[in-house]
């Protein structure tokens, strides 16, 4: 189990309004670039999709798509380094990005919570073969994000976004309740849920690990 460090960063109780506000601002910031990221993604990979009666984009354009994927998509909201490569006559693209959503559970009786979601986009194209997947990996409730601002050692937006990456790395390996550590002795707490038949991490809070107990 995880213990919560006490002190200036509170172990419980109401989250101070300052950190709720910072969490809301971060969610809004990634939201402002999400639509543009989606637009550019469709622009880049749309011509690669096989369509009846239309010729697929020629293979010689695939290296250009790989380069554009790395440099054109907005940096804001992107988590980690994107993959955009063309090798062995195959194009491979991947990106992890945060998007604004509203979390809702049946037990909440219609209530919802603002949250950023983590979504992985994967594309593999070796004409005429084409595969594109958009995988929802985690929903991070505004409360959890605010706790990260409150309790984390580095409260910069960049550090908070970096701390979201371990959620994506663990999404395929955890079940039930989880405690996923970050690099600075912090830990995301939540439970695996089902969204449209797929497993998704629902993150409820953030704590600082100090030993056994909770």
Outline the structure in words.
The protein is of the alpha+beta class and 214 residues long. The protein has five helices and seven strands; from the N terminus they run H-H-E-E-E-E-H-H-H-E-E-E. The chain has one domain. The protein is 29% helix and 36% strand. A hairpin with a 2-residue loop joins strand 6 and strand 7. The radius of gyration is 19 Å and the shape is elongated. The N terminus is likely disordered.
Q: What's the Cα radius of gyration?
A: 19 Å
Q: Which strand-content bin applies to the residues?
A: 35-45%
- Could you say which structural class the secondary elements and strand pairing correspond to? alpha+beta
Task: Count the DSSP helices.
Answer: 5
Give the SSE string: HHEEEEHHHEEE
Distance between the termini: 6 Å
Basic shape: elongated
Q: Can you count the beta strands?
A: 7
Unreliable stretches (pLDDT < 50, length at least 5) are 1-10
Structural domain count: 1
Mean pLDDT across the residues is 86
Across the major sheet, the strand order is: 1-2-3-4-7-6-5
Main sheet makeup: 7 strands, mixed
Secondary structure: helix percent? 25-40%
Characterize this entry briefly:
The chain is α+β, with helices and mostly antiparallel strands and 214 residues long.
Features:
single chain; 214 residues; alpha+beta; 7-stranded mixed sheet; 5 helices; disordered N terminus
Write the layout of secondary structure elements.
Layout: H1 17-45, H2 62-71, E1 78-87, E2 90-104, E3 112-126, E4 129-140, H3 142-151, H4 157-162, H5 165-170, E5 177-181, E6 186-195, E7 198-208
Parallel strand pairs: 4-7
Antiparallel strand pairs: 1-2, 2-3, 3-4, 5-6, 6-7
Helix pairs in contact: 1-3
């Amino acid at each position: 189990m995880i213990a919560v460090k006490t002190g200036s960063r509170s172990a419980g109780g109401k989250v101070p309004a300052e950190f709720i506000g910072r969490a809301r601002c971060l969610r809004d910031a990634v939201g402002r670039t999400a639509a543009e990221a989606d637009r550019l993604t469709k622009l880049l990979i749309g011509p690669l999709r096989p369509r009846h009666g239309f010729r697929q984009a020629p293979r010689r354009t695939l290296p250009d798509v790989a380069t554009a994927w790395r440099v054109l998509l907005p940096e804001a909201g992107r988590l980690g380094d994107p993959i955009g490569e063309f090798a062995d006559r195959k194009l491979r693209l991947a990106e992890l990005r945060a998007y604004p959503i509203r979390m809702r559970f049946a037990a909440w009786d219609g209530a919802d919570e603002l949250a950023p979601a983590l979504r992985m986009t994967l594309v593999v194209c070796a004409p005429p073969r084409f595969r594109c997947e958009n995988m929802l990996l985690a929903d991070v409730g505004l409360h959890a994000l605010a706790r990260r601002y409150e309790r984390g050692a580095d409260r910069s937006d960049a550090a908070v976004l970096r701390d979201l990456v371990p959620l994506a790395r663990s999404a395929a390996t955890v079940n039930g309740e989880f405690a996923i550590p970050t690099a600075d002795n912090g830990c995301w707490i939540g439970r695996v849920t089902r969204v449209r038949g797929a497993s998704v991490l629902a993150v409820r809070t953030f704590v600082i690990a100090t030993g056994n107990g909770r």
